[in-house]
Here is the input.
Amino acid sequence: MGPASVPEPPRTPSQQSQRGLDWFIFFLADVQTGFGPFIAVYLTTQKWTQVEIGLVLSVGGIISLIGQMPGGAIVDAARDERKVAGFAVAAIGVAALAYATMPVFPVVMLAATLHAAASCVLGPSIAAISLGLVGRYAIGERLGRNARCASLGNGVAAAVMGTAGYLLSSRSVFFVTCLLVIPTLIALSRIRGHEIDSARAHGAERREAASGFRLAGLAGLLRQRPLLVFAGAMLTLQLANAAMLPLMASAVTARSSASAPALIAFCIVVPQAIVALFSPTVGRLAQSIGRKPLLFAGFGALAIRGLLFASVTDPYWLVAVQVFDGITAAVFAVMVPLIIADVAFGSGHFSFAQGVVGTAGGIGASLSNVVAGLVADKFGSPAAFMGLAAVAALGFAVVALLMPETRRAEPAKD
Here is the structure.
């Protein structure tokens, strides 16, 4: 990165900080699970129309899309990533409380906007804290550990909140979400601030520790071909992936409406279990065999899943097909922030680069359901699944032909 750069010293964060980050990610996944499908259920019980519910969800989606790069820029400019994360978690708690206590249109719209905006800085904050704690040569395994904690948190939260909604009311889900903010912030406070190298957290060389949000570094980052290629690959990933489960859920409901809820629940649980089991292994493999073989595995599994969804008719076998979703999820939960760290390190704009890739993925996800739905309506679900598999194969080809290997060899220790 230049003649004045200094080799990175070993990073040895304490067990307290490592476990604090583990629990922060676990409880944050719990908090975030309180939104999503529960919003539609809750607002329906409050006599909202489907148009009003759709508008709220659409506004949240739009804010999430356009806020990716500004959210990353905020994290890059921050001197203390923990404070940014803490304010964002508190904002999500306020949004949950607003949903629970004042389910009127203006308040809910503001809550949806607040939740989406806060979420735009949380992902980059977690990645930045992780990078600042362990350094770039240990970040792969740390990201695998992050993915495991998030997956476990999602699973536990879905069970807890589903039970609360069933035994109490759909409103109780948002009170539980608000209460979960407390252990989330306690876990965040357990991460020792002095163990987070601020320059490393922003993807800067040591000589750039006090340089702030540098336009020159940003301009250079946006000219990085690997970053732009990877953003394009993530667009194809989300374009192929986002519509698969909703489309499969519709097909299962049409074939076996009585067992559809249980089958769909299993289809969600199976990938989460695989992510929890294998994400740390993905992080270790990324450093030993490189990034590209794992990207091939992720895109290949997605393409195979689409082909099997197009041909499998037994609803119960569809649950087995979801194993491939788990492989894709485990790979990309680790690979996305890891490859961005590879490409952006030295620019000082690691979090902004996450926003660039996140925006590309968000565009792909937004188009996926619309395009797949149109194809399914005109030609049938098998044709839509074949088309999604073809898009996944296109992503595989983009990685194979245009994406360089980004792994950096760890310097030999004296």
Summary: Confidence is low (pLDDT under 50) at residues 1-6, 207-213. The two ends are 22 Å apart (CA to CA). The chain has 17 helices and no strands.
